[in-house]
Amino acid sequence: MPTPAVEAAVPSLAVPQNTDDLAAVPANPDVPDGQVGVLVEPANHGELTPGGKLEVTVDVVNRSREAIPAGRITLTLSDGPITTRYALEEWTQGQTSESISTERSLGEAPVGELAAGATARVELEIDATSLGLDVANGYAPYALRANLTAGAIQREGRSSIVWNPGTAAIPNRVATIVPITAPLGRTPFLTAQELAAATVDGGDLDVVLDSVEGTKAALAIDPRVLASIRVLGKDAPPEAAAWLERLEALPNESFALPYADLDTELLADSGVTDFPTADLSLLADPEAFAPADGEQTLPATTGDTPNASPSGSPTTSTSPTEATPSVADSPSLPSNEELRKVTATMDAIAWPAANSLGDGDLERLRNEGATTVLLDGNNVALDEESPWTPSTAATIQGMDARVMDDALGRAVSRAVNAESDEAWSAAAAEMSTILAVTARELPQSPRTLLTATPRNVPTHPEYLGKTLKLLDELAWSDTVPFAETAPRANGQDPVTGSILPGDVDHVRVERVQQLMTALDEARGFATMYEDPKEFVADVEAALATSLASGWRRDRGEWLGVTQNVLNYVASCEHAVVVVPTSDIQLVGTEAALPVFVQNVGSRRVEVQVEFVPRSSLLKTGEPQIITIEPGSMTRAHLSVTAIGNGLTTGDVILKTPDGRQISTPQSLNVNVRAELEAVGIGIILAVIAVLLVAGTIRTIRRRRGGDADDAGDAGDDTAAEHSDEGNNVADGADEPQDAEVADEAPHDEAAELSDEPSETER
């Protein structure tokens, strides 16, 4: 048979001389850095019909450090169809397959010199009639290859097409699971802004619902999405509230995932058996559920009204209580169960992360209440190997299971996560070929397969809809509800097998253990907050979000996110600090040391401040409990008693109200001069005594030195006046208030020196 002519082999871009000419062609991560790659992307999801055209896009990607010379692209097609899944797997993995031993050339196209980092795109179009494919034999998948020759460089790209002459086929059944999950993050909830952007017309979550609406896909729903909307109360964006109503009205089968799609298998690998369920109701803002201005509410009443008995325990009164309209002082907040509620059609389904189960995990899932488990094919070893693709229904170690088709799942994931139409078409061609090969294995015995789309929200969710639609439209596959994957529904006996343990990521395990230690620490210092339970719930929910199954796709990014959680807990504990100060001069035997404590956190705290001297020169009193507002500083006065004189050092320690130490102790130098107090008091008393003596002597001298005859009554009056002045001075020495002032003067001076903030404080 003659080689068919290539009707058009024209590069879609001019042959580039530099990377600036290649802006229209996106960089492709499928080619490793430092390599030259060839990507083959058949149009129309690789389906070719009589009278149509085989349209193929070939991308030559140069991710090396040097330019490659001009060359040529040669397109070939296998002589015969791909007949088994094994042969298809060999082909897609770049191996040599005996069933695809000969190929025929479909034509060539030139490729110009390609600069380092550049991509050239070649578009080929071939008339289907020139291929000579047999119409009578029905649909069949064929191997497609593009070979690049550029100087000494030789590279190839592989794909496949399915010839569909339109003859009748018995399709396989395909059930699909679509996760409805929140974008990955570390916060307990999505923000109002994130929800509005995701649920507005054309937003990611809105498009996801558009994609599943009208399909038979089963929905795996993450409660975090729903709770994020409900916890906002009246402040929830209207788009988000409408989206939630729309989700709950869908007739699709559904089941609930753990909150934030928690990776319970990673927790099990890390030895965590009691991961907490955060009480999300503690994180609700009462203002979001308060009635509008002037709105009245009726308190909930029944025939039985609890009343407090003298002992404090509730008693029940059977007399009915009349409901009286009143403005609600404390709004009714949703419960934890109400926030997490998923109105699902199925329950007791566990869906572990791909290839994550190990020995004993099935028993753990069964003990947690699961009756059916969804398993990755690589995580299962079947008791009997078969040359044919088995149905999804299985009994694995005595537990009802559905085993997903790995190759189909990878193709579906690539299609849903596609970055361009060409990339989607290439992935769709692989997906179509897998299903065609599976249907041709046993054309009279259709199987029921199970696949799932990625657990994360796709970057371009419009490709989710295209993928689900294609699965339903292919002549060799038919979508069915999840319920029809059960053995009694598909009429086939389930295969049996056991768990093939997946690899344990010890780096992740170590990080989880660090996170659990941080959680224990958070529970310990939470008592310094006004609402400890609210803080702990916040940390627990953030921890669950950072342990989502979706993080398995990128360990590096996950380590960064979990480090943020560790940093958050540490910053909360060290948000309350003792402000460094200069040396304190302590004059007297008893005084109060002034210590400044700062709260740089966002919550009000109550802490104990304690001074612990490192020598016996000082004896301390009881710790002082102080309250510090967010972003402010408060002074504590710590009572001490001087035992001796000299320079000593002590540590100012902060503790929670229940005595747990927080932050790092701050050292404080104290110069003790207890004798100065006695010296100062003695000097003051001596001065007072001198004044008294001087006043008395002066009075006596005036009396004796006066002329009694000449002065008369005037002299007597003068003497009396001076006598009164002396008495006043003497009386003043005996007043207790002035003595206290005199006694306290050194203390006041020391306090002024001590209370003066250091240079750091200023």
Describe this structure in words.
It holds the Pfam family DUF6049. This is DUF6049 family protein. Residues 292-335, 704-762 are annotated as: Disordered. It comes from Pseudoclavibacter albus. Residues 708-718, 732-743, 751-762 have a biased composition (Acidic residues). This protein is α/β, with parallel strands linked by helices. 32% of the residues lie in helices and 25% in strands. It is built from 18 helices and 31 strands. The protein has a six-stranded mixed sheet with strand order 15-16-19-18-22-17, with helices on one face. It has a five-stranded mixed sheet with strand order 3-9-8-5-6. Strands 10, 11, 12, 20 and 21 form a five-stranded parallel sheet that branches. Helix 9 packs antiparallel against helix 10 (421-441), helix 13 (506-525) runs antiparallel to helix 14 (532-546) and helix 13 runs parallel beside helix 15 (555-573). The longest helix has 31 residues, at 675-705. It is elongated and about 150 Å long.
What is the secondary structure topology, with strand pairs?
Layout: E1 8-11, E2 36-42, E3 47-48, E4 53-62, E5 71-78, H1 85-92, E6 103-111, E7 119-127, E8 140-150, E9 153-163, E10 172-180, H2 192-199, H3 204-212, E11 218-221, H4 223-230, H5 238-249, E12 254-256, H6 264-269, E13 305-308, E14 314-317, H7 336-340, E15 349-350, H8 361-367, E16 372-375, E17 380-382, E18 393-396, E19 399-403, H9 406-416, H10 421-441, E20 448-452, H11 462-473, E21 477-479, H12 487-490, E22 495-499, H13 506-525, H14 532-546, H15 555-573, E23 576-578, E24 584-587, E25 590-599, E26 605-613, E27 618-620, E28 624-628, E29 632-642, E30 646-655, E31 661-673, H16 675-705, H17 708-733, H18 736-755
Parallel strand pairs: 3-9, 10-11, 10-20, 10-21, 11-12, 15-16, 16-19, 18-22, 24-31
Antiparallel strand pairs: 1-7, 2-4, 4-7, 5-6, 5-8, 8-9, 13-14, 17-22, 18-19, 23-25, 25-29, 26-28, 26-30, 27-29, 30-31
Helix pairs in contact: 2-5, 3-11, 9-10, 13-14, 13-15, 14-15, 16-17, 16-18
